[in-house]
Amino acid sequence: MERVLVIGDVIDDIIVVPEGQVRANTDTNAQITQTLGGSASNMASWASHEGAEVTFIGCVGSSDADRVTKEFESFGVHAQLQTSEKSTGSIVVLVEGDSRSMLTDRGANKDLSLEALTIEYLSDFSYVFVSGYTLFGRSEAEIKNFIFRVQDAGALLAIDPGSTGYIKDFGVELFKSCVNGVDILLPNEEEFELLSTESSHITIVTKGSHGVDLYIEGIKTNSFETEKVTAIDPTGAGDAFAGSLIANLSQGVELHSAIANATKTAAKVVTTIGARPQL
After folding, report:
1. Fewest beta carbons less than 10 Å away: which of 19, 148, 220, 234?
2. How far is CA 87 from CA 61, 75, 173, 212, in A?
3. So what's the pLDDT on residue 38?
């Protein structure tokens, strides 16, 4: 088995599922759940759950390091956390049917140092997954230098773009330039509309209940259907897909089979509340 490194945000998730339409200026009954999340954190947990040997790099508030480390340990993930005087990131996720809206405070995640990840350190891993959220707010030179170190270390680099809103804030063309040449890009439909396939060798587009499309060197080669399920909370589907995909690849599973397996994993996660495996 080859080792996987996941780099990205740690977020305290507050997931709100209203029982009906949200009513302005009064109460609406809802199911509210608080869990540790963050796209990359969720992905790391799913990758470990699916059999990968996973190390996670992220940044949290200094008072939360022990709590977060123990949480990762419960999912079999080895966390190497940086700390900040800022609070650990947090997000409120409002789930309405198949759609969700996020109110985000990235907090300590903004202080994550990529410069600390040297070629020597990165060479211990065969697969490196980076959440796009980690790239926002950084210079083009810093991002490209980091990507160079990963690839020079000999690892396969996969990036989940993260957020259409943040990509637009960052600059679509700038973001495409920054991630140009990555091995695997994992956008959802909305992100794919912004980025297309030109930045990566392999682009895997997740489309929710409509399945997954695979592009190799810009050419659509395959589509994969997803299992039909009753979705309760779609929050972690993309993270579960990415985690399962990288886990399968790290265990020697061929790309098409890895995508098919990851699609099945993603279908399971939407039937429960929360973005991580059920312990």
Report:
1. 19
2. 5, 23, 31, 36
3. 84
Q: If you ran DSSP here, which 8-state letter would residue 183 be given?
A: E
Mean pLDDT for the chain overall:
91
Instruction: Determine contact, residues 119/150, Cβ cutoff 8 Å.
Output: no
| pLDDT, tens digit, 9 for 90 and up, residues 21-49 | 899 999 999 999 888 888 899 999 999 99
- What tens digit of pLDDT does each residue of 235-260 get? 678 899 999 999 999 999 999 999 99
Residue 88 DSSP class: P
φ/ψ of 189, rounded to 5, equals: -60, -45
**Global pTM value:** 0.88
Q: Please report which helix (H) or strand (E) contains residue 163, including its range.
A: none
C-alpha to C-alpha distance for 10 and 212, rounded to whole angstroms: 26
- Longest Cα–Cα distance of the chain, Å, equals 56
For the stretch 142-148, contacts whose Cβ atoms lie closer than 8 Å and that sit 24 or more positions apart, written own/partner, are: 142/114, 142/115, 143/178, 143/179, 144/178, 146/114, 146/117, 147/178, 147/179, 147/181, 147/182
